[in-house]
Design brief:
alpha/beta; Spore Coat Polysaccharide Biosynthesis Protein SpsA, Chain A; 39% helix
Length: 244
């Protein structure tokens, strides 16, 4: 397996590009469950709705890329009411994230010519240039992967479906990236890595994101507004506790 970090030396052609957002319906208790350790289910659901819609806006700002959402089949109707009507929603085959990722490339990368990237639904603060560079990388490699700081990945891209690339083992754990790269190596795929980034899984991630969006709220305006209210509510609680 050839592995390298992508930079600015890849050709950038806008044609034949599809960005597929991996999403769920914003339903109580079914999204961002690790955040429920510190936030109410209602708050988590509202936050996820903001993250998802800001992620869609990020995707739609790309130059000449088809945008779609891949989701569990049971979520299609509810998700269609929660997001822009202009976004195509496609039900995945099977259950779980591994099945969803496999469905993305089986459905969208049938020709071998389309550059397809599966992107998570909770990184609307990602610089658009990272997505543009990832698409460019697919001109010269089989697979592009965006690592997260916690051992997972926030995007994966390819031009064709690779049976066996995604498996349920290791998904959602600290070794998800390592497991993916091992399978890519076994399949003989050349792999480029996008810039490491972070997604929103725990309360500490919210603090980091709030600080970033306070300086640049236009990057994810819905999420920035929600985080501002969250911080204000926390400050009021701390003030109230101090007055007891």
């Amino acid at each position: 397996m050839k592995l390298r970090t992508i930079g600015d030396d890849f050709p950038m052609t806008p044609a034949n590009r599809t960005l597929v957002i991996m999403a769920k319906a914003p339903r109580l208790g079914s999204v961002k469950t690790r955040l429920a350790e510190s936030l109410s289910l209602q708050a988590v659901t509202e936050l996820y709705r903001c993250l998802l819609n800001d992620t869609i806006a990020l995707a739609q700002a790309l130059n000449q890329a088809e945008i779609a959402i891949m989701c569990p089949a049971t979520d299609v109707d509810e998700l269609s009411r929660a997001v822009s009507k202009t976004v195509r929603i496609v039900p995945q085959t099977g259950k779980g994230l591994a099945a969803g990722l496999a469905s993305v490339f089986y459905h969208f990368a049938t020709s071998g010519q389309q550059r397809v990237i599966a992107f998570n639904s909770d990184s609307p603060h990602l610089p658009p240039s990272v997505l543009e560079t990832a698409f460019g990388a697919l001109e010269t490699c089989d697979l592009v992967v965006g690592p997260t700081h916690d051992g997972g990945y926030y995007l994966v891209g390819a031009k064709t479906s690779h049976p066996g690339l995604f498996a349920s083992d290791g998904m959602g754990t600290a070794n998800a990236l390592e497991a993916l790269l091992m399978r890519a190596r076994a399949l003989g795929l050349s792999v480029d890595l996008a810039d490491p980034f972070y997604d929103i899984d725990v309360e500490g991630d919210l603090g980091q994101l709030a600080a970033e969006l306070q300086l640049a709220p236009a990057r994810a305006p819905r999420t920035a507004a929600w985080l501002k209210q969250w911080q204000q509510a926390g400050a009021q609680l701390r003030t109230g506790a101090g007055e007891l």
